Amino acid sequence: MRIATYNVEWFNALFDRNGRLFDDDGWSGRHEVTRRAQTAALGRVFRALDADGVLVVEAPDALHNRSTGMALENFAATFDLRARECVTGFTNDTQQEIAFLFDPDRLLPRHAPEPGHVDLPRFDGVFRIDLDIDATEDEVVFSKPPLELSVETSGGFAFNVIGAHLKSKAPHGARNPDQVMQLAIANRRKQLAQAVWLRARIERHLEAGTPLIVLGDLNDGPGLDEYENLFGRSSVEIVMGGENEPHLFDPHARLALSRRIGAAPTSARFWVEPEQRYLQALLDYVMVSQDFLTHGPRWRIWHPFDDPDCWEDADLRDALLTASDHFPVTLDIEI
């Protein structure tokens, strides 16, 4: 079984209002990449992944009577993908949905949000937490509510999935260094609050004893910005859980956490205009509960410069660079 997570930059811009691919020479949302070029590249990458289930982060939106599922299923049909049906959860207004493409011959997923209550609301609700220790509760919402799935394989193996896309810490809109600092700290605070909320839900799943996969773009990792020390832990550490807590496992996250200085895995590559260079970061994860560790799990980041097979396949290498600023992460597991 192969489960993947893939953040597709501006996937939304490749579809018309009826969920059909433009597939023309108009510009995509990617810099100097046409819609036809990005569409072809994505088709090449998804075909290479050949996954049983793919969490699509930044999936086409569901605004103005558009359908995320219709768009992704049209995409899957165009490239004859096994993962050809789509399930979604709570929609949002950011043009970046969270969706799960799957092979119906292998998986049966359904949207299964946990019932909410005052202390732990559903992901489309409002979470109250004191963010700045001022004895006043702040109200936190997910701009992109995580997708909770109950999944069963064709062989009868049952597990849960939570697909997440946490808030970015980038200080968008800042006009001077002071605003950069203020926005960066405020965004990190909100992101950590989302991580605390997500972790609380994870603990409920772990207590229930059903195997769990948490995957997606956490927009965070150890040592990614200078404000992390203000709060003690990164979102990744919160979501995974501490040593004395029931914890999730991801070898790339574990390696990054153990190497505050030195080489670490990366899953995304961004152009930094002011510095005229690329920044690489580990933002995408596939975390599993301890139940899965006896099923021979194997993780892979499809990074065209770090993965030998991706590098040696020139067509795939170019497609990965054209398709998105993130690279897929896969989990192969015997279930």
Summarize the topology.
Blueprint: E1 2-7, H1 35-49, E2 53-59, H2 68-78, E3 85-88, E4 97-102, E5 107-111, E6 127-129, E7 138-140, E8 147-153, E9 158-165, H3 177-208, E10 212-217, H4 228-231, H5 235-240, H6 251-258, E11 268-272, E12 277-281, E13 284-288, E14 298-301, H7 308-312, H8 314-323, E15 329-332
Parallel strand pairs: 1-2, 9-10
Antiparallel strand pairs: 1-15, 2-4, 3-4, 5-8, 6-7, 8-9, 10-13, 11-12, 14-15
Care to describe what's here?
The structure is a single chain. This protein has a single domain, classed as Deoxyribonuclease I, Chain A. The chain has 335 residues and is α+β, with helices and mostly antiparallel strands. Helices cover 27% and strands 23% of the residues.
List keywords for this structure.
alpha+beta, single chain, about 325 residues, globular, five-stranded mixed β-sheet, about 25% strand, Deoxyribonuclease I, Chain A, six-stranded mixed β-sheet
| Category from helices, strands and their pairing | alpha+beta
Q: Report the CATH architecture.
A: 4-Layer Sandwich
Quote the CATH topology.
Answer: Deoxyribonuclease I, Chain A
Number of domains: 1
Beta-strand percentage range: 15-25%
How do the strands of the widest beta sheet line up side by side? Answer: 3-4-2-1-15-14
Q: Unreliable segments (pLDDT under 50, ≥5 consecutive)?
A: none
SSE order, as H and E? EHEHEEEEEEEHEHHHEEEEHHE
Tell me, what's the shape? Answer: globular
> Number of helical segments?
8
Q: Output the radius of gyration.
A: 19 Å
End-to-end Cα distance, whole Å, is 6 Å
| CATH top level class name | Alpha Beta
**Level of helix content?**
25-40%
Biggest sheet record? 6 strands, mixed
CATH homologous superfamily, by name? Endonuclease/exonuclease/phosphatase
Question: Quaternary status of these chains?
Answer: single chain
Number of strands: 15
Name the average pLDDT.
91
